[in-house]
Amino acid sequence: MAITIRSTSLSLLFSNLLLLTLVHRSLAGSIAIYWGQASNEGTLAQTCATGKYKFVNIAFLNKFGNGRKPSINLASHCNPANGGCQVASNGIRSCQKLGVKVMLSIGGGIGDYSIASAADAKEVAKYLYNNLVVLF
After folding, report:
1. What is the enclosing helix (H) or strand (E) of 51?
2. Looking at per-residue confidence, does 1 or 83 come out higher?
3. Residues 132, 103 contacting (CB under 8 angstroms)
4. Which of 3, 75, 119, 132 is the most buried (most CB within 10 A)?
5. CA proximity to 55, closest of 43, 47, 63
6. Residue 85 contacts residue 61 (beta carbons within 8 Å)
7. Which residues of 5-37 are buried (b: 16+ CB within 10 A; e: fewer)?
């Protein structure tokens, strides 16, 4: 009888450990986060290093189109317009090394953006390629 109870207990323990292992491996599942709008969220590298996220959306390219130069708002993290975003650049590389996909969120809740024509879309795309692809 003691052997049956011990065997059942070991089977139950093994099953629970297996379940916990599977749950632990799925913690970073497909969770995404927006980064770039709060000064208390830490650096991009710190966000990715938590292991909680599979995707990080850099927020936001919030001004573009109608012949205007696109603008990224990264709140208090850095100012891309002044070339002062090396910390974000380094953070992107750090995230990529960890297997976290980094994307740019275009638009946002508050912004000044629209694409008026195919030529306008090409200009925005050219700006993104020439100025942001180097970050990614």
Report:
1. none
2. 83
3. no
4. 132
5. 47
6. no
7. eeeeeeeeeeeeeeeeeeeeeeebeeeebebbb
For residue 9 the two structure tokens come to: 């207990």
- Per-residue model confidence as pLDDT tens digits over 14-57: 554 444 544 444 455 689 999 998 888 999 999 999 999 999 99
Structure tokens at 41: 């969220």
User: For residue 72, what pLDDT is reported?
Assistant: 84
What pLDDT is attached to residue 71? 84
Q: Which residues contact 66 (CB under 8 A, 6 or more apart)?
A: 114, 116, 120
Per-residue confidence (pLDDT) for residue 17, from 0 to 100: 47
pLDDT of residue 19: 47
Position 134 scores a pLDDT of 64
**Can the peptide bond before residue 55 be classed as cis, meaning omega within 30 degrees of 0?**
no
For the domain covering 29-135, report its CATH number.
3.20.20.80
Q: Which residues, in sequence order, are CB contacts of 53 under 8 Å at separation 6+?
A: 28, 31, 32, 33, 47, 100
Cβ contact 89:135 at 8 Å: yes
Query: What whole-number distance in Å separates Cα of residue 113 and Cα of residue 110?
Result: 9
